[in-house]
Predict the structure.
Amino acid sequence: MTRTGYIVVAVVVALLLGWQASRKKQETSLATYEPLPPITVQNNAQPGAPGNGAAAPQPAAAATERPAASPAAVAGSRAAQPAAPAPNPAAEAAARLAVLEEILSSKNDNDPRLDSAFNDLSPQAKRLFIQKYRQLPAESRNERGTVVYLLGRNLKTAEDWQFMQAVVGEPPCLSLENCSRAMKAEPGHVNTGVEVTLAYPAIMALKRAERVLQAGTGDAGQALQLISAARNSRSKAVSSMAAELEQQFSGAAR
Amino acid sequence: MNKKTSILTFILALTGVLLYQADDPRRVCADLRDAPGEPGALGSLQSSAGNTVVARPAPVSAAKPVYTQGPKVAPVFAADVPANIKTQMLQDLGFVGTITSQKTSALHSGIFGRVNGADYTTFFNDRVKSVGMNGCGSALAVACVIPFQSNTKMWLTQNYIKFSHPQIARVMIVFHESRHTESKNHNWHHADCPDPFQDANGNDVHSIWTGASLVGESGACDITPYGSYGSSLIMLKNIQRYCTNCTEKVMMDAGMYADDQLNRIVDAKAKAAIKADIYK
């Protein structure tokens, strides 16, 4: 082989080495794209369906593998999640509250952190969430309901249930504009869904009690007490739903 | 170097170059785009910036977002639409544009297509070409269509952002109204709720969650699964049951608002058809 031949062979070898190196680099870079772990990795998706008990085929998968809802949400999610578990309970609780506030202000109910970032809330975090609930204007129905929803996923103590009882015992919100003042009823379909939204936080609490009873886990006695308390609500939406649940679960152990 | 060695070297060099190109990282992204003829198969998200995020398939990374160009949200917003209302509506439509599922009920399939963001976006964009501001004749209204003015325009009120509805409820409202643009279907006019309006037990029918009486309410009921109440409840119920990338909250909300709408379907056959389709 001539001198030129050796040069050509050397070029070929270099190309092959380059190709292998690029493969290796790509694999490494893909590994760095792995998402940051959520604040709590634990998946507490519960059996049964969301809503009124109809079958949902994939609650666990949906909770753990759903894609991000928006680029902003992804960016926010990464920014809000600490790289390592916070050793300080107060700091950890504050971090969770910060994520909650970010989600509430985004008005994005499909933020995947709602399923992953609020599992296993500490007592400190729960206290901050309850404080947040009380700070929210009564008219912030979705925001208040979201706080109830998240606390409802973390029902462990009697105090947790007491908060739920307080929610179903609230005076009815009379209008979405001003909870303390009723708006004139109007015919037609303009009030579509309004009644549900007016009662939304209490409905969320009742839905959680329903879930506890359906799953047969957790404190069935507390769930039944909550339903019983809701029967006395001055909100027709809440009392009629409670009556329906009471009928449905009348045989459940107290 | 003899002729034989030259040819061998050339082939080796060519092979090296081809192998290198075959491993071009761009291919990874190309794989993530929707397959031809199946728009939105991976699900897509329209952000206000016009970018789209799609889920990256396993095993590379189940949650890694990849930004590509996706379908546009078509409606043109009138100049009088405040920026915060426009942003909220785009965000809501963007959320709907991300929805993915593995199943779809038959009625849903006939009305919207799949329980899928691309199909919802197409449905909405085919009907609503522009968005403006209007009082809609009611202090409670969030949105409306005014057929004698336009069959392609949706009007929003300040309540779109003032009222604190869950996101899926806003989506329900705008899809409900989008159905009213269909002039070929007489805009799916509502029916009056009957009076008396009683259930099988002889009791007055009330909204399922609220207890609010629907007896004799004017234009507050439907007699078909395909009208505004029926179609939007079928959409929400499908989202509750089949959405694979919705949060548990969205799915719960979808079920609650869908169930509330069911009693607005006052024709027994229409109601039975919906129940058989998605409540079984």
